[in-house]
Amino acid sequence: MPRHFLRDDDLSPAEQSAVLDLAARMKSDRYTLRPLAGPRAVAVLFDKPSLRTRLSFDVGIAELGGHPIVVDTQVTHFGRGESLVDAARVLSRYVSAIVLRTFGDDRIAELAEGATVPVVNGLTDGFHPCQLLADLLTVREHCGGTTGRTLAYLGDAANNMAHSYLVGGATAGMHVRVAGPAGHDPDPAVVARAAEIAASTGGSVRVLRDPAEAVAGADVVATDTWTSMGQEGDGRDRITAFQPYQVNKTMLAGAAPQVVVLHCLPAHRGEEITDEVLDGIRSVVFDQAENRLHAQKALLAWLLDRHAEELAAAGE
Ligand code: CP
Ligand code: NVA
Prior knowledge:
The protein is an alpha/beta fold. It has helices spanning 13-28, 52-63, 84-94, 105-114, 129-143, 160-171, 188-201, 211-215, 238-242, 249-252, 275-278, 285-313, and strands at 41-46, 67-72, 97-101, 119-121, 150-154, 175-179, 204-208, 220-223, 260-263.
């Protein structure tokens, strides 16, 4: 079984820390570490739109000396019913790793089931773990570490970013608070898993209704779109429900004085975050976006190393 990265908790706290250490090295030594030289190919597949994930994997794989193959799945047989297990078996004969952005987490699980190479979640409805690695690297850079730092996430607490902050943040030893309106709470199973991890890392998790309570004294304030990809036509009035959770100057006043603001982007300016905050001095969103590149390079290098070790141990 290859090592996959489908959810944030597919890396243990020590492993997550090792990947983040490597990401910092990848950043400071950007063009010299080339573990995919050969070149080894990586397939990067998209069932949904993307700017950052697509470009950062493409550039990152090339910088590692590898060969990126970026594909919109509308041009494949995915939409015509080809089994993801079969597709994974085929791709595993060509490439050294597969990245997939898709809808349900069942789809990436199916791909992983058929793959004999590592599979990486480039965003599903449930999780966005590559984004979390970039966010944690950014928190390390701006807050001097992650352990014991408090992160408040406001807005759609039921979406992939909320789930990844809960699980990935707990793995990094953070105190994670998520706050959103009724009807948009995180999956209780994800909260329970995050709490279990937090108990072992010294972190904590809280699900709140009051945004001011979540933000009080926070070192990091994060938000995300109120309408995730695939929810555009669901007919729910999201703007009214989420308005009290907007990250604006008044909301930030309750946070720690040196608070940093995260947003995975793309932002819906004037909805979940104001221009004043996004473009203001507490915002680190463009460092965060840059860090996608370094974090994913580290993740791929780390996963492929583990995979090679496991193959060697199995005598293959
Ligand atoms: N943050 C993020 O994943 O952006 P893209 O949707 O542009 O890849
Ligand atoms: N929650 C958002 C994240 C975009 C990067 C979405 O799934 O559309």
